[in-house]
Amino acid sequence: MDDLHRMHYVTGHYAHLQGLRLLPLSVPFVLAAAERMAERPFVPAGVWALVVVASLAAPFRIGQYYASRFGQAPAPRWRSGTLTLVASCAAFLWFEWLRETLSPSVSWPLLFVAIVLARLGLVAGRLRVHYLWIAVAVAAFALLPHGSMPEDIRAMAGYLLIGGGLAVAAIGDDRVLRRALTTGRQDSMRAAV
Amino acid sequence: MTRPPFEEMSSLDRLVHEPSRLAILTALSACRSADFLYLQSLTGLTKGNLSGHLGKLEAGGLVTINKSFKGKVPNTNIVITPEGRDTIRRHWKRLEQLRRAAGRWVFTT
Predict the structure, then answer these.
(1) Among the four A134, B10, B42, B44, which has the fewest Cβ within 10 Å?
(2) Are A42 and A193 spatial neighbours (Cβ–Cβ below 8 Å)?
(3) Concatenated DSSP letters for B44-100?
(4) Per-residue pLDDT tens for A23-80?
């Protein structure tokens, strides 16, 4: 029965689990971290623009790959994730406003992001457990007191965290999807019920 | 007096409870529709087997099958009917009840 619950989850979140669509988005952040590390910009502005456009356009092409490889299963409109995304962004901005108003020693917006990621890692029998690891990394970064490291290093670590987090999420989600859609053999299904 | 859970199991709807069909209906209940390729990827069934199961579900009024062409490529889209959605919801509820009942059940001689 747990396998059937997972099938239900994977089908309902098919678009979200097409992880490789996130991978190109990590490139600009890793590149920005590399520039910070080098302490001088070494990527020409034209290349930067090209990288950003390519990283925004590539997910559509990758989505077509998933459709041709595994088929299509559009989620119900109320489960598209738009509402959750908007609510999370609003909450993030509110925590950001609180941080600027109260000046706490830790980053509340990032702690909020860590909690959201951890929740994602715990659903569906920890199917997307990789989000727990990202949540731990984000929480550790959020708890670093301001002034504990130079601003440049902090910015570089931030870019690396976002780029690395996107890459881990991308590869992890893709693995979850591939496991679900290529190992659903009849024998395992009979054992599931 | 209630029947022991194992006797209750024999009265489950076989059209829905067959493992492949249960998986198909469970998946369809989580989305607006799914194409043939997706269901084949998810269940690992052969084209012939999947086609057979979908035919039975369609005959039972639990799904509708729409065949069309995307360019020159044939596309089969499957949608769960409101009756199918209701049936699978009730079936899942019943399975959960049986699982709980089986957990509580004690052998008596």
Answers:
(1) B10
(2) no
(3) ---HHHHHHHHHHHHHTTSEEEEEEEETTEEEEEEEE-HHHHHHHHHHHHHHHHHHH
(4) 999 999 999 999 888 888 888 889 999 999 999 999 999 999 999 999 999 988 777 7
Which of B37, B38, B41 has the CB atom closest to A182's CB atom? B41
Q: How far apart are CA B14 and CA A10, in angstroms?
A: 25
**pTM of the shown model:** 0.82
Nearest chain A residue to B35, by CA: A72
Report how far residue A180's alpha carbon sits from residue B4's, in angstroms, rounded to the nearest whole number: 35
Q: Which amino acid is at A101?
A: T
Range of the domain at A50: 2-192
Q: How high is the ipTM of this complex?
A: 0.83
B31 CB neighbours in chain A (<8 A) are 11-12, 14, 73-76
Interchain pair B23, A192: CB under 8 A: yes
Q: For chain A, how many structural domains are there in total?
A: 1
> Is the pLDDT assigned to residue B108 strictly greater than 80?
no
Residue A106: count of CB within 10 angstroms of its CB: 14
| CB contact set of A1 (below 8 Å; sequence gap of 6+) | A192, A193, B95, B99
CA-nearest residue to A70 within chain B is B38
